[in-house]
């Protein structure tokens, strides 16, 4: 359910994190946004690899009812030479292979090297060197400014002011890597943002959030940030929309595809399966360390397989839900005419696909579809129903479209009041109360008549 609710960009980050955390999981590269989902781009399963375990391997492996391996009769260690059971486990007759050790400079030396190519006054150089020497192993400056002032007085015999230390700190923070010498996570993130050369809206927004709403950000109180920073949902979404579905019309035929970024090519690491098979093929009992290794391998493979299954289920749920919406609103998707939209609630789609209403809601509230007529949030296709003068059910979105068109066509020197709009819609066959007109007008972000008046 958590994976289902995530939009494409968040899903990519989630997959990246899973691949980093689980070495048994692999992701194929070079999948483009426009790739169509086919059998070749769906996640691989471990099933095919498990088939490679032959019947004769079963004499070495026993699967218990709880799906855990039994190790008791796995191997017999009696015939293993003693030298193989110690840490330096090479025979004198074996050829020794040594791995070369590569030495490099520390990040403090790297920072000092950057400082050495700049023309810096001697006093500032000493202060900056002291700051670099006090950075911890993660690159943060944990020592307080007053403590640094005292260090410089006792160790370097120089008197410095807080302003001079802060100026030298600013110098060090301008070095590579971005975020170095920060005194907090908030400062580290701000330094990294300041290093970005492409000052896009997203960059500026991120800097505002981190600088002024870091506490809310760290607690994931995103709605509070939107309210306090006066950021509209549309403004936020417009910068990051990546459609989850693609609807195209070819020769009059409507085609529905999942964005390929919803279907990453994931598979089980072949090396882990080979290691598992390697243990299976042994004819001797295994040691306790090998048991631990085998348990670790199996856990990682099971976890990877579960994640792949969850991604696959997410794809299937997304597709069947969008397909049901497409079928339900076929007239609209064929023409792009909003007046063709039928009244549709979550229960209508839930009944069509056989999924719980909460599941359909998760899909509708966070997913976008790209159509020949624009890119829309799925929930915008759901609306309450009203009746026209003929007693036919119509969508509230159809009413909003007619209301908007009426306001657009009005005489701007004498715009229609809500009462007049009510009368106009009633003449067109739509029975709707004035308070509903006002509600829809606000949802369309259309001001009252006096504010629409133009001289």
Q: Specify the biggest β-sheet.
A: 4 strands, mixed
Strand runs, count: 8
Run of helices and strands: HHEHHHHHHHHHHEEEHHHHHEEEEHHHH
Oligomer: single chain
CA distance, first residue to last residue: 54 Å
How many helix segments? 21
| Structural domain count | 4
Summarize the amount of helix as a percent range: 40-55%
Give a verbal description of the structure.
Strand 2 and strand 3 form a beta hairpin. The protein has 455 residues and is an alpha+beta fold. It contains 21 helices and 8 strands. The strands form 3 sheets. Strands 3-2-5-6 form a 4-stranded mixed beta sheet. Strands 1-4 form a two-stranded antiparallel ribbon. Strands 7-8 form a two-stranded antiparallel sheet. It has 4 domains: 108 residues, no CATH class; 131 residues, no CATH class; 74 residues, no CATH class; 68 residues, Homeodomain-like (Arc Repressor Mutant, subunit A, Orthogonal Bundle), CATH 1.10.10.
């Amino acid at each position: 359910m958590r994976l289902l609710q995530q939009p494409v960009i968040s899903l990519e980050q989630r997959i990246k994190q899973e691949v980093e955390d689980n070495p048994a999981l692999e992701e194929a590269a070079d999948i483009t946004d426009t790739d169509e989902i086919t059998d070749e781009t769906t996640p691989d399963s471990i099933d095919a690899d498990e088939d490679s375990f032959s019947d004769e391997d079963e004499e070495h492996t026993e699967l218990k009812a709880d799906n855990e391996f039994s190790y008791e009769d796995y191997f017999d260690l009696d015939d293993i030479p003693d030298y193989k059971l110690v840490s330096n486990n090479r025979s004198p007759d074996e050829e020794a292979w040594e791995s070369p050790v590569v030495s490099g400079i520390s990040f403090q030396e790297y920072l000092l090297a950057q400082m050495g190519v700049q023309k810096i006054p001697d006093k500032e150089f000493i202060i900056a060197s002291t700051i670099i020497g006090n950075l911890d192993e993660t690159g943060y400056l944990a020592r307080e400014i007053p403590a640094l002032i005292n260090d410089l007085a006792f160790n370097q015999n120089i008197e410095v002011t807080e302003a001079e230390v802060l100026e030298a700190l600013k110098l060090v923070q301008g070095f590579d890597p971005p975020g170095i010498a920060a005194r907090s996570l908030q400062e580290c993130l701000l330094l990294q943002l300041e290093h970005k050369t492409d000052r896009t809206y997203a960059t500026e927004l991120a800097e505002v959030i981190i600088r002024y709403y870091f506490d809310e950000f760290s607690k994931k109180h995103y709605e509070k940030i939107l309210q306090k920073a006066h950021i509209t949902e549309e403004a936020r979404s417009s910068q990051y929309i990546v459609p989850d579905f693609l609807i195209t019309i070819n020769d009059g035929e409507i085609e529905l595809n999942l964005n390929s970024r919803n279907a990453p090519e994931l598979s089980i690491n072949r090396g882990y399966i080979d290691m598992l098979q390697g243990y299976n093929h042994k004819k001797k009992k295994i040691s306790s360390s090998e048991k631990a290794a085998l348990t670790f391998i199996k856990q990682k493979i099971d976890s990877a397989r579960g994640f792949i299954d969850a991604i696959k289920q997410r794809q299937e749920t997304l597709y069947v839900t969008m397909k049901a919406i497409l079928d339900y609103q076929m007239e609209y998707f064929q023409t792009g005419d909003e007046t063709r939209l039928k009244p549709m609630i979550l229960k209508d789609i839930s009944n069509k696909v056989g999924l719980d209403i909460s599941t359909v809601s998760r899909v509708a509230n966070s997913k976008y579809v790209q159509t020949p007529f624009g890119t829309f949030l799925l929930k915008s296709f759901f609306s309450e129903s009203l009746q026209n003068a003929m007693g036919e059910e119509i969508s509230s979105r159809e009413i909003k479209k007619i209301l908007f068109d009426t306001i657009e066509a009005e005489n701007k020197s004498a715009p229609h009041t809500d009462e007049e709009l009510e009368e106009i819609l009633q003449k067109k066959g739509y029975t709707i109360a004035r308070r509903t007109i006002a509600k829809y007008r606000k949802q369309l972000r259309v001001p009252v008549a006096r504010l629409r008046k133009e001289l």
